[in-house]
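User: I'm curious what two different proteins look like when written out as structure tokens. Can you demonstrate?

Assistant: Sure. I'll show them one after the other, since each token string lines up with its own sequence. Here's the first protein:
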Amino acid sequence: MTLHERLLRLFLDSQKVAALLGDLDEEAARLGASHGWIRRQALRYALSAAWLAATRMDEDFAQDVRHGFRLVRRLPGLALAACTSLAIGIGGTTAAFTMIDAALLRPWPYPDADRLMVVSTNLGRYFSPPAFRRLASQHDGLDHLTAAEGHEFLMKFGGQAVLVNGHRVSAEVVPLLGLNGPLHPEAGRTFLTSEFTPESEPVVAISHRLWRTRYASSQSIIGQTITADGAPLRVVGVLSRNFDFFPDSDLLVPLTFSEPGTYSEYARTLEVYGSLRPGLTPDLAALMLSGKTRYFFPTQVASVESVRDRLFRGFRPTVKILSVVSLIILLVGCLNFATLLTVRSADRQQELAVRIAMGAGRHRIVRQLVTEALVLSVVGGAAGVLLAYIGRGLLAGNATEGMLELSRNPEWRVIVFATVLAVSTGVMFSIGPARRATARVDLESALRDTVPSPLSGISPFGFRGNWLVGSIQVAFTMVLLVGAGLLVKSLLRIQSFDPGYDSSHAVTLRFDLPRIRYRTDADVASFVDLLTDRIRAVPGVHDAGAASSLPFFLGALRMRHVLLEGPIHVSGPPEAMPFGWRVPPPPPPPPGMTDMPPLDFFFALSCEVDPAFFRTMRIPLIKGRDFTPFDTAASPPVVIINQAMAARYWPDADPVGRRMRLGPLYPWKTIVGVVGNIRRFARDDEIRSEYYEPFAQAGDQRRLLARLGTDLASRGLVEAPSSPAMIVVRSRLNARTVANAVAPLVRTIDPSLPIGQVSTLRQALDNAIADRRFILSHVVGFAVLALLLAAVGVYAVTSHVVRRRGHELGIRAALGARGTHLVWLAMQEGVVVAVVGVFVGGLLSIALTPQLRGFLYEVNPWDWRTLSLVAFLLIPAVICASYFPARRAARVDPLTALKSV
């Protein structure tokens, strides 16, 4: 034996390289070779042996992969069922992860995005210009304190007036959002510090979307002047396509400040953002800001919250439910995959026995079976990614508006997630079946081409474990079906409720009337009356009315303090604020009356309407009279209240003829009627006190707002606000036809006034339950898929048992057993799976369905009727999956069975 052979054998026989290197000195002395030469040769042979081992392993792995693909070709039905099971599980989970990634995990392109904060107080999230300036003077806790004000700019494109969403922002927005760094404008430049002064030339930065759709991505737009709200603005830049901090905002205009006006403290229109300083928490920053806000009037307490947390706060319950549902469908799919692999391994007993008899080790066979399963899992994972890619469009279509953006392609995290999920599930759920398959091989029976008894060699974790797996599948399927049943029941109830008005065949049109032109109540009332009269003359229109706010369209709806003329008797709990609303501060005492006793103010929603509003909306008049054209600014002020307000403050008296007002300096308004309650904010929201007043008599507050807007506009703080008017058109024509018919009528009254929003009352009602429909669609879809997977798993196991017991059933048939007895004998384990699975599933449903409480309406999460109905439907479905292979087994030919014995 040569020296090279001795060293190679020594290395290959050694279990540790360290042991070989430790004996090198002795070998060198015995063989007369130098120590360095021995080490170099040992390293060479070590690398050669490692390469040979890796090559051999690669060849084995490649052979196993090829064998896996041959298995797919030889058994396409089994491969299709296994791949489909994994594709459904991985596809559903990946689609859910795609949405979660887009909403919660995808990094924002802004600098220090995790430290972007929004500031608010106990009075709400909006600040007045003087309040913001006081905060910005010494902004403890936050850097780059920035004010932003949303605004709809009136622009003209092709001679047509269009409302374009935009924002006015203060100077610190540039470093805060990285407009001079990673989000540098696509074209042009960002704002200069000098452009945030009142004396500077008005400039604007347009969004990439507006640049592409309205200006054909032309570079020549930079430096040109565009007109918005009648004022010239020079375009200095095109925002980056990744800039979406203000969703649906197409214009960014510098916000300039000058000396505050008399009423500017009450103009709370600014949102305040900032970057949290390193080392601070939001609570600590809020505590530091509260040191200033406590000196505001009225005294306020500041709060600081992450922008991302606030944006997706309402989305988190949906994420929670979607995650649980997707994990359940993944588990059901993986269990079905493992069941199919176990069935296939059990049918390959003779093949595995021959391999073992020829010297193949059990570990080598396990590796082969796992590799074959890995091939199926990779194919199923690829199909799952394709399903997730297709399903992401469905997710985006069903998601609530503004909840997330799913228009982008899945990012690398989603692809990595799907890949890891496919590989890990393929390995995890194939090792068990592979080890059990090799452990149960009976060489003697398999080599003699006989099948052992189905009861032989079965351990608690053996083939009988597949029935346990089937029970688990049925249990989780029942959880999904129960959840789907509860959501369907809740949706049916919430859709059948009475909103208090007729939402069918009602088109809504929104107009924002600039208070520069519509200063008085008479101006607004004249526009509304003239437009509704002309709309009623349009063929196909039955009626038309107007209001400052419609249900689910907030408009100018406000929660106001009111004084009620006694005697009153308050009934029920205190008035609840709408979700996200803050308690409005009480009005300040009148000048010269600071020593007057405190007044008892009550809360009520305020809305302005025209005389035809209740008739058009078909809101019933309970008591008194409706508004008439004679309720003008010159006539005594009147209001109409809703039934909830009447029941709260005059439960035992007639409120018609009583009076109310907004404060000591406001005139008394006489209650002339009571109308039915309507749902304002949500289908399942509670009814609140509400009063209506005619457009023509809203001057006591409109004059204050007009004075406020003019004062601020004259000082360059904010532009005069607009007065919303919502027109309801009762017609069988579709929304677009109505809008096309109304547009020329509007131009004859005010050529520069566009239609801001076109919708229907039915769409508003449907959007109010969009989150419920979103969850419902996915839970129902996953429940149906889980039921299909569970049925396939039970069918596969039953078919396998029937094949293994073919001889037994044939002998029983030859001995006179009836067909019904044979069918029952073959399917009795499927019945056990159904019963046990439903029982366990019922317990799991009781534990998990309370997570749906926030999405249910007048439905108990532990509704026994739903549980009973699902059990009544699920047990027959699972039994049917085992009945058909059992019925096929009962038709076995006794003579054929006896000949094979």
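Here's a second, unrelated protein for contrast:
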Amino acid sequence: MIALTTPRAAGPLLSSLIVAALCSASVRADTAVVPAAGELETVTVFGSRVKARTVFDSAVPIDVFSAQDVQQALVSGELGQALQALSPSVNMPRASASGTSDSIRTIQLRGLAPDQVLVLVNGKRRHTNSVMDIEGLFPGTVAVDLNAIPEEAIDHIEILRDGAGALYGSDAIAGVVNIVLKFGAHDGSVDAAYGENRTHFAPTGQTITDGRNRTIAFDYGLPLAQNGSLHFGADYQKRGSTNRAGRTDSSFASYFDTPADQALNNEVVFRSGDPELSNKSLFYNADLRLSGGADLYSFATLNWRNTKGTGFFRYPGDPTNNPAVYPNGYLPVSLGESHDVGFVAGARGDASGWKWDLSAREGYNTFSYGLENSLNASLGVESPTSFHVADFTYEERAVNLDIARQLPVAGLRAPLNVSAGAEYMHQAYHSTPGDPDSYAQGDPTLPPGSQGDNGLRPQDAVHLARHVTSLYVDVDDEISPRLLIGGAGRYSDYGDYGSSTTGKLSVRLNLTDDFLWRGAVSNSFRAPSLAQTGLRLTTLNLNPTGSGLQNTAWVPPTDPLAQANGGVALKPEKSVNYTTGLAWRGGSGSEATLDLYQIKLTDRITPTGQFGVSSPQDPTLAAVTFLTNGLDTTTRGLDAVVSHHERIGGGELKVSGALNRNYNHQDGLRGALTTQGVNAPVVIPLLYGSPSTKLVLNIDWSNVQWGAFVKPIRYGRLYAFTYDSNEPAFDGANAQRYGNAWTVDAEAHFNPTTMSTLAIGGSNIFNRYPDQTTPGGTYGGSFPYNFINPVGLNGAYYYVRLSIKLGH
């Protein structure tokens, strides 16, 4: 396997990947070519490792979104945003002015945390990013960076809406997203798009045009030797920032409200919106059939991304400012530089009736964090204004073997479908310090370190590693012509905390040929990430009352400062999942499914509130926060999907509606959370921060020359933590209710030739915004909208897109 030790190893790695592409092959995720959207005859082993079945015949609910669906939804340039537009079970809030969260965008599935959904690429586990969310919506989580997967590489996407720990291991509590890459020696395409936000922004009365987004991408397939193929491509995106900040009352937001501060009263000095972004990606997917009948395969994705976000504005009279450097105050700019590589190579074939698949994979992500337009006030006028804050690196290497066959068993009507496998995985996490000036303490009467985020100190750098060994077995049998029963079990041993055992029982009963009942019960788990067990980082952030900033340190739960306040070593999160549902298909092109679910989660890993401390080693430190297994929750809900397609008006009409109803309930608190109380800014988004309902409608008609679609989406009510004491209290803290909101996406396209398509369209075309935040929660008017709402802050986005097919 390929070894990586530092971010500088990307060069040798790229050379290795190119060599591998020329002599290896590709997995097709065991999924057949996807038919028109809405059809349930797609064949997949997703959701079961045993035997390929149609989506209709699966014992668990699965969504499959075709290449056309994905292309229509990816106009924003963000995969998470596309998934939100496709699936009612997925949401992607767009964090803003939140440190590294401006750069790393994540999704929720069924209202759970981003690290409780497993992401696969071609059926293989995808590595997480290297950054733990500190200042965003889901502090303490470490999730997959979806934007590191090239958009042009995606053929189709599958979503398993059920717990799948017994099948795939850690993280699959809410479900699994499988991203299938384009493959084969067929034709490719060139795609180019331009879009921008155009909006009337009510809080300031302005008409704003920003967020200019330019993308260009291509993919192409070539024969490889006589019995193989190489599909490859690249994409590039350049996006401008957006700003939806309001006019700020300086008497509220400034520290001393000096005359220089007052001169900025009622001005837009903060930023709230999407960061400036530059994103570059490459991919390949290759396969080669050997003369003995075995297949070699390999695929890889590479991504380089740079972002510019913002922190909080520092007024001229703020103690974190030096007026000789910034006489009019300053807005720190956060710089994120992410390098990401995912590589898989393997072989598969048949031996003595057993299908086997042996593969190795390497996942690597490094994130370099910096600041510009900043200051270390304690260093006076000699302070630099740009800082390197820290580097974070995560590496994951694994080798796995899967085997499967049908075994005749006496007394059983049909052969027993058996699959089994083993995996060995190595994980490593590293953090490296920032510039000395980024954490230095000069004048002891002034705040130390760079403003925006303090630099990582040498004593806080960590180097962690662990080994994970897993075994699994999956069986099912059609014990009668209409009854399928399946079972799965998995044992995983982690070198740092011990072992976990999970299991799943599933049943599918065909009441008729076109109407079935399905159900499953399982347990899943999520192992604490290495970053969660060892991250140390000091941030300058709001104090518990929101009245000012203070230095707060994130420390491991085993740190003495944490242990003094109830901290203990983390253990896995555990869940018990129940699902039951009905599926129906009609000969007239109509289908419908209804699934009910419950996810009971214990030992959820959640940050504590801020414990006040006095540290002789760090006199500037006011408080510590650490992670604890302190929260138990129950999530209940339903998913309903109805679709119909037919030939009409000389073209294909597809109509669908999908509804998710989701409810989270806090069952209990324990440990440090009971002594400190609920960390409301964290727990309220987890419990109440996703829409209670979400409805996705879609009408799509096209023929060989024309086409159009319209997609209304309705987001139900949700709640967000607020510092406005006039709002009602949830779990001892104030929360604002945000009402229902509609958005509409639409597109029309024209095919000038058989090899080209020109499209014009928009997202949120009627320029809808969520409810405004109440005055007491806007930070003096700076943030009139809360970015927790999946409607987003940017208003309408319009685009034009040109696609040209490439033929051999």
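A detail about the second structure: The mean pLDDT is 88.
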